[in-house]
DNA sequence: TTAGGGTTAG
């Protein structure tokens, strides 16, 4: 249709009115390449005009709001037309083009044009500041705002709102406060938009009292005001107040619902978010693209595939399937809910930009090309499809998409899962080269990757090379030590964390308790279990309780472990019984093992695993003395047979192959999917002594780091 | 004013 119109247009190119109408049509349709083609046919010399005033028509095109943000190539073509036709002397044309450059984030062009302007007024200054905000240049925006005041130009509400946007995005609480004071003192007209931006500015700087005050003093409020103040309480985590405000808001529009539902998710009230979403369908406004993104994110988080599919149908009916955000949320939802193939299909049909290099960064962001890659890769890693994720990553690089910090984090996690040290190291080099080394998410993932690939030293180097107060970053290092049974080192790092007044979370405590357990540090374990509740107000969950049962059980304090289960009313948790049974077996307490297994069968009468455990214990009883020596190998074999089989255990074979195929003295890293047996563990100790090599063995649960005849697990695992 | 992708344990 557009092509047809364009070819028709070429026949009548001498008619300026027809040219302009077509141009406007293409602009509204936002067909980028066609617009530019149409512009190239635009009659430029005055003798080509048949009727009417071309200047007026041109100005009306500049002011005509397009459905989407203007594209840079289209605006520069318009600019060329204006130059050729001699329109640029006109103030409205100059301002119009400046505004379009600003909207497509072409800050360089805006600054150049602004510098060349003969007359600067409040409008041109405001356009310049908006361009800075759109481009994320908030510091520059503020310094230009100050230049404007020095020039004696009095700001209006729009300019001030833009200045507050700059202050909200950087560390300018002081500057923003002084502008607010100036508005008060000079009795400047203060409209709703400006007041909303002031609320938002205070909220971004955690100055919630001020935000609330501005809201309360507003003579009139719109949906944005209400949403902003609801957002303040969401940020504070005060969801009761947020709920009251949401109910009280007289202007509940679709964005109010979005803000509130999203706030519930941010505060981990996913069930409430789900209920509100149902309520919105019943009594609320129609969904917009934000609602769809939020709803899909919620389905992904709760792994509710059916709900996700219903939302998919709904968005198809309402025509939101081409929105880049929504599409990306769909890719995420399908992969997190286990339908990786569907997410791949949606990914393959995603919006492709005509020419990425010509577009501004914000426009590229809106098209979502890089983001879709990282979402898809994250989905594959999440589902454990490590090889596929790595293959997608190299395809992504081949297709010229940049490796951003998000993608690299997922790839580092993939290397950790697969325990592939060499690839992990290459990824780390790539991260440093691209300048992503300072990203805290990425650094945490790299620590975890090195630890899980068998190099605790490299993990430690990354940790020590960065000053950081992020709790996940610290927990990653503590978990790495715990994984290797280095309980004392784990405790040292945990103490450093407390000294720096970084707040440990519930996972940090699971990690430190498990470190104490693996290192047999009972007293310290009790200390942290109490500290967690008393000093940090963290209510212990089954994971914490289980660590304590494990800690006591491993040390042979079986009665204490039993009492702990009873005292804390953990009888209905199968996990603690399994832990206790394992400890009873290690310490050869058959009676206690039977007792615990019977408890387990009571709780899980339909679980085959419970009966297998129980029957194993009965089987063990037949020859307990023998089993206590060989319990980790095979129960019913003759001694000679056993010796032959033990020689072929995969870790021994791997080590033998490693020794003959690598340089003397280099470390060996071995991975296996089962727990190491006692015989292999003993043998490896001798091998490290005889060959003077370090051997790192990753089994199903943890690492064994052998050096000079000693293992970090101290023979306890 | 509100939206999508990343890290730690078990």
UniProtKB/TrEMBL annotation:
Keyword annotations: Repeat
SUPFAM superfamilies: TPR-like
The keyword Nucleus appears for this protein: no
The keyword Repeat appears for this protein: yes
Spans of repeat PPR: 121-155, 222-256, 369-403, 470-504
Domain DYW: 628-717
Domain of life assignment: Eukaryota
NCBIfam families: PPR (TIGR00756)
Protein name: Pentatricopeptide repeat-containing protein
Organism expressing this protein natively: Platanthera guangdongensis
Name of the gene encoding the protein in the UniProt record: PCMP-H42
């Amino acid at each position: 249709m557009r092509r047809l119109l364009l070819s028709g247009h070429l026949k009548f190119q001498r008619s300026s009115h027809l040219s302009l109408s077509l141009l406007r049509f293409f602009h509204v349709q936002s067909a980028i390449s066609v617009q530019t083609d149409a512009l190239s046919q635009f009659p430029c010399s005055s003798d080509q005009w048949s009727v009417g005033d071309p200047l007026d028509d041109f100005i009306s095109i500049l002011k005509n709001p397009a459905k989407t943000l203007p594209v840079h190539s289209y605006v520069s073509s318009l600019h060329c037309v204006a130059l050729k036709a001699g329109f640029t002397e006109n103030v409205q044309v100059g301002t119009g083009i400046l505004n379009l450059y600003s909207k497509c984030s072409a800050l360089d062009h805006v600054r150049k044009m602004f510098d060349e302007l003969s007359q600067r007024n409040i409008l041109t200054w405001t356009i310049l500041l908006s361009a800075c905000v759109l481009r994320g240049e908030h510091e520059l925006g503020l310094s230009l705002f100050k230049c404007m005041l020095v020039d004696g130009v009095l700001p209006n509400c729009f300019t001030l709102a833009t200045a507050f946007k700059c202050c909200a995005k950087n560390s300018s609480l002081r500057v923003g406060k002084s502008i607010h004071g100036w508005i008060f003192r000079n009795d400047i007209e203060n409209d709703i938009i400006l007041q909303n931006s002031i609320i938002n500015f205070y909220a971004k700087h955690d100055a919630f009292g001020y935000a609330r005050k501005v809201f309360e003093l507003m003579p009139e409020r719109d949906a944005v005001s209400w949403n902003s103040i609801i957002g303040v309480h969401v940020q504070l985590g005060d969801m009761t107040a947020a709920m009251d405000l949401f109910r009280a808001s007289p202007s509940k529009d679709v964005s109010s619902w979005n803000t509130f539902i999203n706030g519930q998710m941010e505060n981990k009230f996913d069930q409430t978010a789900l209920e509100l979403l149902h309520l919105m369908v019943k009594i609320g406004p129609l969904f917009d693209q934000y609602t769809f993104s939020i709803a899909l994110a919620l389905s992904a988080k709760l792994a509710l595939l059916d709900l996700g599919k219903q939302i998919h149908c709904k968005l198809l009916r309402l025509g939101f399937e081409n929105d880049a955000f929504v599409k990306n949320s769909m890719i995420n939802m399908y992969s997190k809910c286990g339908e990786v193939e569907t997410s791949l299909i949606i990914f393959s049909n995603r919006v492709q930009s005509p020419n990425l290099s010509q577009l501004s960064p914000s426009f590229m962001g809106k098209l979502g090309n890089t983001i879709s890659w990282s979402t898809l890769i994250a989905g594959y890693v999440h589902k454990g499809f490590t090889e596929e994720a790595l293959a997608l990553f190299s395809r992504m690089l081949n297709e010229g998409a940049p490796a951003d910090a998000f993608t690299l984090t997922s790839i580092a996690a993939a290397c950790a899962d697969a325990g592939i040290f060499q690839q992990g190291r290459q990824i780390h080099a790539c991260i440093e080269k691209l300048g992503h080394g300072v990203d805290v998410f990425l650094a945490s993932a790299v620590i975890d990757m090195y630890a899980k690939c068998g190099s605790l030293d490299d993990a430690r180097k990354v940790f020590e090379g960065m000053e950081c107060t992020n709790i996940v970053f610290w927990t990653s290092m503590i978990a790495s030590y715990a994984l290797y049974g280095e309980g004392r080192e784990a405790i040292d790092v945990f103490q450093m964390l407390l000294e720096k007044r970084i707040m440990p979370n519930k996972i940090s405590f699971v990690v430190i308790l498990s470190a104490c357990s693996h290192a047999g540090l009972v007293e310290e374990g009790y200390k942290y279990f109490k500290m967690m509740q008393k000093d940090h107000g963290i209510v212990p969950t089954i994971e914490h309780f289980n660590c304590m049962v494990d800690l006591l059980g491993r040390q042979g304090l079986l009665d204490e472990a039993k009492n702990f289960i009873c005292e804390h009313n953990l009888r209905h948790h199968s996990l603690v019984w399994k832990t206790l049974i394992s400890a009873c077996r290690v310490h050869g307490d058959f009676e206690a093992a039977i007792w615990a297994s019977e408890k387990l069968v009571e709780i899980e009468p339909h679980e085959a695993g419970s009966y297998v455990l129980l029957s194993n214990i009965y089987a063990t009883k037949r020859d307990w003395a023998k089993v206590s020596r060989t319990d980790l190998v095979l129960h019913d074999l003759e001694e000679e047979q056993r010796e032959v089989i033990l020689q072929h255990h995969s870790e021994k074979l791997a080590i033998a192959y490693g020794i003959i195929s690598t340089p003397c003295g280099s470390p060996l890293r071995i991975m296996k999917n089962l727990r190491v047996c006692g015989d292999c563990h003993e043998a490896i100790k001798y091998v490290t002594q005889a060959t003077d090599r370090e051997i790192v063995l990753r089994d199903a649960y943890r690492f064994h780091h052998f050096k000079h005849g000693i293992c970090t697990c101290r023979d306890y695992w």
